[in-house]
Each structure stands twice: as structure tokens, then as C-alpha cells.
Write a structure and sequence with these properties.
single chain, 371 residues, alpha/beta, TIM Barrel, two-stranded antiparallel sheet, 10 strands, binds iron/sulfur cluster
Length: 371
């Protein structure tokens, strides 16, 4: 297993990390813990969990696995998160996380789910960063981290607002959305931070629809899964690529793909990225050239969600859930009706996508689901 340092923390971990948000049967606590244990056996020692994952059972599952992992005496690193802002609320959350995990401190604790520019400032005003600083002084956190879905042009400002506290950043990055994120990754690395990638497999889309992602493979890749891992880990600033394992088989597939994985150098990676962009005709590449909508419509968010819809047209409820929970857009119709159909975004779209037609499709999806 490749080992990588996490920025300037002095911590070195497995480059393949375990994301604990996709257990296939979380009600089976002991069975799900076997997935974590299998990952650890295969050399994966960075374990990322959070409240509310997997019917709010993820931390409990990880806690069961940690009891066994601790007996081995080998190093492991556990991470959790909170999106709370006040001292009382953050302390309540971390106490729950520590209790569920059965540990005295967290290796990494994330200021979680920063989706909108300015959101960190709002939490700061409520004392969020002061509390994180104190938790570290009290020994309940070893390293302070931040988790975000911000676009690359907003990442640097957000990190500056972090008062130098953030030692690591978790950000969604994969072979399908890298255009939007790669500069943000570089911003974090420039500040000496480690970078963890979530959505390494596009939330499972890349491997579930592997035939659609053949273009991410290089001649060296034996599978799309291996290609996705090679892609993220070839970015030199990336410390860990998280993969959400559903079961033991998922662990073995990813660990096998890591065996003997060779990485692309920067020139080869840039050529590969260009080939990927050119090959995806109907997909939004997340380049964000459509960002200056005069009405403030978040075109890129809707087009990213539409990518999922193209692969899973029958999963209409899941599409709306993605917009609501992932992108924080609960009122789809209202947001889309702000569009005056000026055509600016379509004119700028590097993929020449029929954005306005896709807006109509999304409105219909919402009408079907909400009735
Ligand atoms: S067509 Fe609509 S979404 Fe696109 S830029 Fe104009 S107002 Fe914004
Ligand atoms: S310009 Fe087109 S491809 Fe680029 S983010 Fe916008 S919709 Fe997607």
C-alpha cells in the first residue's frame, strides 16, 4: 500500500482511505464492522466517518471495528466531522462521536460541509473556530481539518478565513469533476495542508457505470476502478483518496487495484485530463465557465446533478436528494424559475450542453416527485 504524508502534520497514512458512508447494511453493525476490519487488514489505516452517515450508524460501526484494530497495536487514524457552529453544539457532537468511536481523541476533526462561499464566516461569528482551537488544546482533536464542496475559485478565500488552523482539507474530486476542484487542491497544498479526496469514484457512479467512463482509463489500467484511483493519486498534492466501501468485496477490489499501482507524472496527467474532457460529449465537465449567471442561478450545480440523471434516469428521488443534501438546493423549481433564458450560460458552455432544456427536465423531475 502506498503511504503518503498529510501535509505538514507529520502524519503518514495509507494513500487509499476508507470512507464509511456506504455500508450496504448498516443495521448489521458487526457485519459492517467486518468491512472496516478487512480494510485495515489490507493496509488501509485512514478511516473517515461522520455523524448521520448510514442511518447515523457509521460511527458506531467504526467504534466496533476500532476495538479489534486497537488490539493489533498498529497505527490507525480516525476522522469525524461536525457542521455545528456554537461551542455548546460542537462539544455535544464531539462527545457523541468520541463515545461512539470508543476513543479519547480524534486524529482529524472536520469543520464539515462548507457548500456556500461565506459559510465559514457565519460559523466563525458563532465561535466555531475558537471552539476547534480549544478542543485541540484540550487534546480532544489532534488535527483540525475542513471539508468542503466549494468551487476552486472560492477555496483559497475560505482557507484564508480559517486563520491558519486547518491542517487538512477534504474535497470532492474525481476523474469526472476535476476541472472544478484541482486549483482548490493546489491552494490547500500551497498552505502546507494535506488533501483528502472524497467522491473518488463519483459516489459509485464511475464504477457502477464503468462503460461510460472507459475514457478515464490509461493503457496501464486493468479496470475503471484502478483508473479512478490512479487519476486521483497521480495528483501530487493529494494525500489520501477515500473510497466508500459497501462490503468486503469492495475493499478487496480497491486494495487489489492499488497493488503495483504506478502513477502518472505531471505532463502525462495533464495530457490525460485533456483527453478525458474531450471524450465526454454529453456530460458537464464542471469547468464552471457558466458561473456568471446574471440571475445567480447555480447552473453548474444543476448540470452536475444532471450528470447523475443521465446515468440513472429512473432515480428521480435520488436526484432531488442530491440537490438538497449535497448541494443545499431544497427549492429546485424556484431556483430554476429565476432563469430568464438569456442564453448566456449556453453560449459559454464549453460542452455546448442544452442547459435550458435540462432545466426543463429537472423541473419535470421535481413535479413528478413532489406531485
Ligand atoms: S440562461 Fe438562465 S441560467 Fe443561463 S445565464 Fe441566463 S438567466 Fe442564468
Ligand atoms: S460551462 Fe457547461 S460544461 Fe462547464 S460547468 Fe457549465 S454547464 Fe458544465
Amino acid at each position: 500500500m502506498i503511504q503518503r504524508p498529510i501535509g505538514n502534520t507529520g502524519v503518514t497514512v495509507s494513500a487509499l482511505g476508507m470512507g464509511c458512508m456506504r455500508f450496504e447494511n448498516p443495521q448489521d453493525i458487526d457485519g459492517s464492522a467486518q468491512t472496516v476490519l478487512r480494510a485495515f487488514e489490507r493496509g488501509i489505516n485512514y478511516i473517515d466517518t461522520a455523524p448521520f452517515y448510514c442511518e447515523d450508524l457509521s460511527e458506531t460501526i467504526v467504534g466496533v471495528a476500532l476495538k479489534e484494530i486497537q488490539k493489533t497495536g498498529k497505527p490507525y487514524f480516525v476522522s469525524s466531522k461536525t457542521s455545528q457552529a456554537t461551542d455548546a453544539d460542537i462539544r455535544e457532537r464531539i462527545e457523541t462521536s468520541l463515545e461512539r468511536l470508543g476513543v479519547d481523541s480524534l486524529d482529524f476533526y472536520h469543520v464539515w460541509w462548507l457548500v456556500r462561499p461565506g459559510e465559514l464566516l457565519e460559523r466563525k461569528a458563532q465561535g466555531c473556530l475558537d471552539t476547534f482551537r480549544q478542543l485541540k488544546e484540550e487534546g480532544l482533536i489532534r488535527h483540525i481539518a475542513v471539508s468542503t464542496h466549494l468551487d476552486h475559485q472560492d477555496v483559497g478565500e475560505m482557507l484564508d478565513q480559517g486563520e491558519g488552523l486547518f491542517e487538512s482539507m477534504l474535497i470532492g474530486l474525481n476523474a469526472a469533476n476535476f476541472s472544478l476542484r484541482i486549483q482548490g487542491v493546489q491552494e490547500a497544498a500551497r498552505r502546507g495542508m494535506g488533501v483528502m479526496t472524497m467522491n473518488t469514484l463519483g459516489g459509485g457512479l464511475i464504477t457502477d457505470y464503468a462503460d461510460k467512463f472507459e475514457s478515464i482509463k490509461t493503457p496501464a489500467d486493468q479496470s475503471v476502478l484502478q483508473a479512478a484511483l490512479r487519476f486521483n493519486l497521480s495528483i501530487p498534492e493529494v494525500s489520501v483518496a477515500l473510497v466508500g466501501f459497501r462490503n468486503v468485496e469492495d475493499v478487496d477490489s480497491a486494495a487489489d487495484a492499488m497493488d503495483g499501482l504506478t502513477l502518472l507524472d505531471r505532463d502525462a496527467l495533464e495530457r490525460h485530463q485533456q483527453q478525458i474532457i474531450e471524450s465526454r460529449e454529453d456530460l458537464c465537465t464542471q469547468c464552471n465557465y457558466c458561473r456568471d449567471c446574471p440571475e445567480g442561478v447555480p447552473v453548474i450545480r444543476f448540470m452536475e446533478a444532471y450528470n447523475h440523471y443521465l446515468f440513472e434516469p429512473d432515480e428521480k428521488a435520488k436526484l432531488l436528494e442530491h440537490l438538497t443534501l449535497h448541494w443545499g438546493l431544497p427549492h429546485v423549481r424556484e431556483a430554476l424559475e429565476a432563469c430568464t433564458q438569456c442564453g448566456l450560460c449556453e453560449a459559454r458552455c464549453t460542452q455546448h450542453l442544452p442547459i435550458l432544456q435540462r432545466f426543463e427536465d429537472l423541473k419535470q423531475v421535481e413535479a413528478v416527485i413532489k406531485g
